[in-house]
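Troubleshooting: if your tokenizer reports a length mismatch, compare your output against this known-good record of 258 residues.
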Amino acid sequence: MPTRLLTELSAPALTAALGPDSVLVLPTGAIEQHGPHLPVATDLITAQSLAERAVKRFGDELDLWLLPPLAYTKSNEHAWSAGTFWLSAETLTAVLRDLARSVATTPARRLAFVNGHGGNSALLQVVARDIRVETGLRTFTLHPRLPADQGGTSPEGELGMGVHGGFEETSVMLHLRPDLVDMSQADRWVPEHLAGYRHVRFGGSVSFGWTSDDFGPAGVIGDAREATAEAGAERAAAAVDYLGEALAEVARFDPTPP
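Known-good structure output:
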């Protein structure tokens, strides 16, 4: 089976292998504090691992090609903490546009961001359109799992606020890299008072600017205590299934009316 990691090909082989319906998959993670129990590379590990699994499983069928992940992204909501290494919105925008210009020199015309960090989401939406206008590439933004504040779910005990370092992320990391998780430091950090707001809340109709230390010194928003590797394995498998379905549509998407 041929490699699906684009950087393992020579330049001539890359040009020969790609076509207009090839999909280049770029995982976008983050290096940022994730509380006392998770590594700062949590979002990077998650995005890269799940994108790799999806490309390995569906790559031949859908003509998917994996690019190296982008580790440093927009994480200034965690800039207060050591261990957060972040780019400004302006810098990240410039990096993504430069990478897209490089993609546009290949025969591929489809670029999909598989995003593992909620703080990137809004910027990726803006940049995806800019890239479309500037290069003509078809651009897409996918999340292996939507964050709770962007339409995703979190356990009932998290009151819909498991957006960072809670049950979901901790479970997935216990599955992917249990050696990097310290469950003796896991706890419940849920800002319960926000449940009293109808509109201004995570996932509410009114968004708000925040930094993770607004909700306490741990920098976590969620409940990691009941996280398990088994729950993480289920969520990882579901994420790969979803990415396969979504990328199948990415591979054939055409907004032009028939």
